[in-house]
Design goal:
Layout: H1 5-10, H2 18-32, E1 39-44, E2 49-50, E3 58-59, H3 66-77, E4 81-87, H4 102-105, E5 107-112, E6 115-120, H5 125-140, E7 144-149, H6 152-166, E8 173-177, E9 184-185, E10 207-208, H7 213-220, E11 225-232, H8 235-249, E12 253-258, E13 265-269, E14 274-278, H9 281-285, H10 290-312
Parallel strand pairs: 1-4, 1-8, 4-7, 8-11, 11-12
Antiparallel strand pairs: 2-3, 5-6, 9-10, 12-13, 13-14
The protein binds ligand PMT.
Residues 63-67, 177-181, 183, 209, 211-213, 228-231, 257, 262 line the site of ligand PMT.
Pfam family, one: DFP
Keywords: Ligase
Domain DNA/pantothenate metabolism flavoprotein C-terminal: 168-271
Length: 313
């Protein structure tokens, strides 16, 4: 079992696409290093833990990617450049508005003797145009880099590389760790190579994944503004757990949320204070998203953090 994060990395080979992702991250960082644009790394979606090397089964973590993908759009609205690090097939910024049958329902099929054409129904043009305009603009201005992971190993390798490459941005950079990261895993030498036979009941022993916030805050991005999330199901534990994380890792902010109502209510916990952001029934009814308010809060806090740092230097 890996007893710490260094051992964890040394016992899991780096993913095949890591070098390519590192090149993309280097280009992105170089583009934003000297200008005024602020940068945020958003992690989003759940990581998996495979049960077999040739994986048929895996343990998954709860997360559709709504928090991360919606927040990415609001950070872009505030002028930030975003690295969106997400689980394969989880929600992505912009395209999230057109998932499932929604997109097909926005189209008209026109068949005449001269041929077939597909158009957007007139009432949907404003919505599609609005989303498309923002998406194209983010790409054209080099403000959106999307990278993906599936397993907790791919996530941890990519996260470390991303942090190390973004580190020169110093206080201009936010880490917004909304992904739901596996806490337990099966060490590679204990994992079955092939599909586990379904001939008898199985007992699976899971080891603890080292908490990666520790090296992240103290070693990889010591000057960045780090925001982590805390998901609980027992409300009596939520704020204590968030404070525990702040005291242990010494980062800037924990956004605490309950599985039961995380789309409507979060508590922002800092070393000094804690306060609630909650959507009213009316705000939910008209489709407002809590991420708009979360991101506005983070952007304000980031501004204070940068002012404080430049006042000290
Ligand atoms: O995507 P949605 O469906 O919208 O859901 C959003 C969400 C509920 C997943 C999101 O709001 C959220 O709470 N994300 C964090 C969930 C989580 O993993 O909580 P945790 O208590 O297991 O971890 C707390 C923090 O420790 C996380 O910021 C994580 O980055 C970090 N961590 C976790 C495991 C690990 N081995 N190392 C870590 O550093």
């Amino acid at each position: 079992m890996a007893s710490n994060w260094e051992e964890f990395y040394s016992s899991h080979p780096q993913p095949a696409n890591l070098s390519k992702n590192e090149d993309l991250l280097r280009d992105f960082t170089a583009r934003h290093l000297n200008g005024d644009t602020r940068v945020v790394l958003v992690t989003s979606g759940g990581t998996t833990v495979p049960l077999e090397h040739n994986t048929v089964r895996f343990v998954d973590n709860f997360s559709a990617g709504t928090r991360g993908s919606a927040s990415t759009e609001y950070f872009l609205d505030h002028g930030y450049a975003v690295v969106f690090m997400h689980r394969v097939k989880s929600l992505q910024p912009f395209s999230r508005h057109f998932t499932g049958q929604k997109f097909l329902n926005m189209l008209d099929l026109i068949e005449t003797k001269d041929g077939t054409s597909v158009t957007v129904t007139s009432e949907n043009i404003p919505k599609i145009a609005d989303v498309l305009r923002k998406y194209k603009s983010a790409l054209a201005n080099g403000k959106l880099l999307e990278l993906s992971f599936t397993t907790v190993y791919e996530y941890l390798w990519l996260l470390r590389s991303a942090c190390q490459i973004l580190a020169p941005l110093k206080e201009k950079c936010i880490l917004y760790l909304a992904a739901a990261v596996s806490d337990f895993y099966i060490p590679p030498n204990e994992m079955s190579v092939h599909k586990i036979a379904s001939t008898k009941p199985q007992t699976i022993s899971l080891q603890l994944v080292p908490k990666i916030l520790a090296p992240l805050v103290s070693l990889w991005v010591p000057n960045a503004f780090v925001v982590s999330f805390k998901l609980e199901t027992n409300k009596d534990l939520l704020i204590d757990k968030a404070r525990e994380a702040l005291n242990k890792y010494k980062h800037k902010l924990v956004i605490a949320n309950m599985l039961q109502n995380y789309r409507q209510k979060v508590t922002l916990v800092t070393q000094q204070s804690s306060y609630v952001i909650e959507l009213t029934t009316e705000q939910s009814r008209i489709g407002e998203e809590i991420e708009m308010y979360i991101v506005k809060n983070i952007v304000d806090k980031h501004e204070e953090f940068i002012a404080d740092r430049s006042g000290r230097s």
